[in-house]
Specification:
Protein name: Conserved oligomeric Golgi complex subunit 8
Strand content: under 5%
Pfam families: Dor1 (PF04124)
Largest sheet: none
Distance between the termini: 218 Å
Number of domains: 4
Subcellular location: Golgi apparatus membrane
Oligomer: single chain
Number of helices: 23
Radius of gyration: 68 Å
Structural class: mainly alpha
Membrane topology: Peripheral membrane protein
Family: Belongs to the COG8 family.
Shape: rod-shaped
Order of helices and strands: HHHHHHHHHHHHHHHHHHHHHHH
């Protein structure tokens, strides 16, 4: 197809050629709008027509009619075969239209309700904020349940460790609670756990200090002290003081048990009570020695030999001072007890084993620097002095009581019944000058045979000799003068009682005796008293003085100024004067 070239024309001489859509709209028997012919599909089809040859253009209507018929048939067939679909589509479209209207109404109602819903939601959120917070806390707790359980179980675990004496684990748990408290200083739960742990640690401290008060050997005590050191609640000096205090309390308990046992065994019998006092002191000294020696050796091992290194050189010195103070206090307490109880044991035969025991004890303590032998002598000297004095006084009382007795239950006896044997009553023996001379050189181990005829005087002699024989077991040299003075004092009192007995003649005052006593018999009774008195002052007293001085102390009366004491000398003078006066008369 040849291209038609447009010739230029002048705007003012040639009319404008209409476009193809305009021509078609103008020539159509039916009105067609230009908009319909100006659409994309119409423009494309019109462009297609302009490119056709004339033959093709002329056959185009037939082709279009054929296509229209085919489309009509196809549409008819489609409507016939798919009418249910069209009906359903129609119904659905109607329903959709109704639903859209209802939806629109619902949306309008929803939009009206949304503000109140929003207000209610905000109110609900505010009201449930605390619950949500608690729920978040509960959720957090549940999430960290295991860790919280470990923290909360610290006091219980610590208490279990302390009850089972697992002190290492207890200290580790206490340290862990301390570190948690430092990491969370503002957390009340952690601080509460720390407070409970501290209370358990205080219980452990009490338990460890209690070990020091109980019966325990060195390993247990060393272990307890080491744990107390790890707890760091006391410095070394305070710990040493606590150790000595605890062991001292345990020792006091053991000593009190010995004293309680002694009180339970006391029967009121003088001789048995003396033996019980001796057993008590022996047992007391054994317990004291073992207890004090254990404390000193344990203290040396724990605090002096294995003392922890410190920068202060005064610590070891202070520890030594504490031990010295403890030892001094314990020794002084023992000496005070001996001063109080040794006089209750007048018999030196009981004192001698005690002195030997204490000497050995002091020797063993000397290796520890605690020798107290020099302090024992004055105590035992005083005990011997008091005991001998008491026994001599008791022997003198036993002699004097029958001579002065006025008891109705025990009537006074005649001299022939009291002072001499029945065989010697008719002619009481008297010492001759030769016998007196022989007695001055006779051995003091042999009592005068003549005294066997005088039973009361013999009993008195046996009592004194028993005392002196006991004194031989423990006879302090410095007591010779005191004991001799005491002996002479009792002899003077006994002689004075005998002189008064002979002078007052109390058997005459007894009607039961005086009614049956003739003048001759009374004179015979007076002779028995005179013979007894003479025998007492010439034989008995010198022999007793020699028995003490020579038999016990292996000395002589001349060495100790052999004159009798003024008290005994006064009684001797009274006897001599009475004898001379009687002779003169």
């Amino acid at each position: 197809m040849a291209t038609v070239t447009s010739l230029p024309r002048r705007q003012d001489s040639l009319p404008e050629i209409p476009a193809l859509p305009e021509l078609l709209a103008a020539s159509s028997s039916k009105p067609i709008s230009l908009d319909a012919l100006s659409g994309p599909d119409a423009s494309a089809y019109l462009g297609h027509l302009t490119n056709l040859h004339l033959d093709a253009l002329q056959s185009e209507p037939t082709s279009l009619s054929s296509s229209s018929a085919q489309l009509t048939n196809a549409l008819t067939t489609l409507c016939h075969t798919s009418y249910p679909t069209f009906l359903s589509l129609h119904a659905t479209t109607s329903t959709l239209s109704t639903s859209l209207s209802s939806l629109s109404s619902s949306i309008d109602s929803l939009l009206t309700t949304l503000p109140s819903l929003e207000g209610s939601a905000r109110t609900f959120a505010q009201e449930t904020r605390k619950i949500q917070k608690d729920r978040r806390k509960a959720s957090l707790i549940l999430e960290h349940h295991d860790k919280l359980y470990d923290v909360l179980s610290l006091p219980m675990l610590l208490d279990s460790c302390i009850r089972n004496h697992n002190y290492n684990e207890a200290l580790l748990l206490s340290s862990h609670s301390s570190s948690l408290s430092q990491r969370f200083p503002d957390n009340p739960l952690i601080q509460s756990v720390r407070a409970e742990c501290d209370a358990r640690v205080q219980a452990m401290l009490t338990q460890l200090l209690g070990v020091l008060n109980e019966q325990a050997k060195l390993p247990a005590l060393f272990r307890a002290v080491n744990f107390l050191r790890k707890m760091e609640v006391m410095d070394e000096q305070e710990l040493a003081l606590a150790f000595l205090t605890g062991r001292g309390l345990y020792l006091d308990g053991a000593l009190n048990a010995v004293e309680t046992e002694k009180k339970g065994n006391m029967e009121g019998n003088k001789e048995r009570d003396r033996e019980e006092y001796a057993r008590y002191l022996k047992r007391y000294v054994d317990v004291w020695r073992e207890g004090v020696q254990d404390v000193v050796s344990q203290y040396n091992t724990i605090f002096l030999e294995r003392a922890p290194s410190t920068s202060s050189p005064t610590i070891p010195t202070q520890l030594h001072i504490l031990l010295s103070t403890f030892a001094t206090y314990r020794i002084q307490a023992l000496l005070d007890l001996l001063k109080e109880d040794l006089p209750m044991i007048p018999d030196p035969t009981y004192l001698t084993p005690l002195l030997t025991q204490l000497t050995y004890c002091s020797n063993s303590f000397a290796r520890l620097g605690m020798d107290f032998r020099g302090l024992l002598a004055p105590i035992f000297v005083d005990a011997v002095r008091i005991g001998i004095t008491r026994e001599l006084e008791e022997a003198a009382d036993a002699w004097c009581n029958p001579l002065t007795s006025t008891s109705k239950s025990k009537p006074l006896q005649k001299p022939s019944q009291l002072l001499v044997t029945s065989s010697a009553a008719s002619s009481p023996p008297k010492p001759t000058a030769a016998q007196l001379k022989a007695l001055e050189s006779s051995p003091v181990t042999m009592p005068p045979q003549i005294l066997s005829s005088y039973p009361l005087l013999g009993v008195y002699l046996n009592a004194i000799l028993t005392i002196l024989n006991g004194l031989r077991m423990l006879a302090p040299v410095e007591l010779l003068g005191d004991i001799l003075s005491t002996l002479e004092s009792t002899l003077a009192r006994s002689g004075s009682s005998l002189l008064r007995y002979g002078r007052e003649r109390p058997w005459r005052a007894d009607k039961r005796i005086s009614l049956t006593l003739s003048e001759e018999a009374d004179t015979k009774e007076a002779e028995i008293v005179d013979a007894t008195t003479e025998l007492y002052f010439t034989v008995f007293v010198p022999f007793i003085r020699r028995a003490l001085v020579e038999g016990v102390y292996s000395s002589t009366l001349q060495r100790i100024q052999g004159d009798a004491s003024p008290e005994l000398e006064a009684v001797l003078v009274e006897w001599r004067n009475g004898r001379t006066g009687k002779t003169d008369g």
